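Lab manual, section 2.4: Encoding a predicted structure.

Procedure: take the sequence of the chain (168 residues), apply the prediction step described in section 2.3, and record the output as structure tokens. A sample record is shown.
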Amino acid sequence: MEQIPFYLLAALAVIAALGVVVMRNPVYCVLALAVAFIALAGLYVLLSAPFLAAAQVMIYAGAILILFVFVIMLLSPEREQVKDALRWQRPLAAIFGVAFVMQLALVIALAILPPERGQFTPERIAQIGSTQAVGASLFTDFLLPFEIASLLLLVAMVGVIVLAKKKQ
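Recorded output:
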């Protein structure tokens, strides 16, 4: 019985993600991205991860999408001239597409193998709570990737400010 909501939410997420890529209007792309984020939050609820579902809605569907809308309004895409694609973009996109398909094949191949059980088994998560498990794992095992992601976000914010600053 859980399969029906899973397949509905998964289909909605995939269709919304395709809408983000296919639509030409950036505002519609952001709205499709919001639908994808909400569908992913629903999938987290089905996986018994309410903390991740709430974080998905608050951080991504809330803050990140508002940031995207501000950037779209700041750049005002209707005034921008659409330039022809550079010659090197198509071969580079093909290379990245092939790399993505290879990574996807690797993930599918590894999914067939039995997974390793980590220290946070469902029984242990039931004892300490999912929020504590996420925090303990994030700030012990994944501290370096967490800090690198924080630094990348900071650099991206500074880059956006520099690019958006009007010429004096």
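Check your result against the sample. The helical segments are 3-22, 26-46, 50-75, 89-112, 122-128, 130-138, 143-164.
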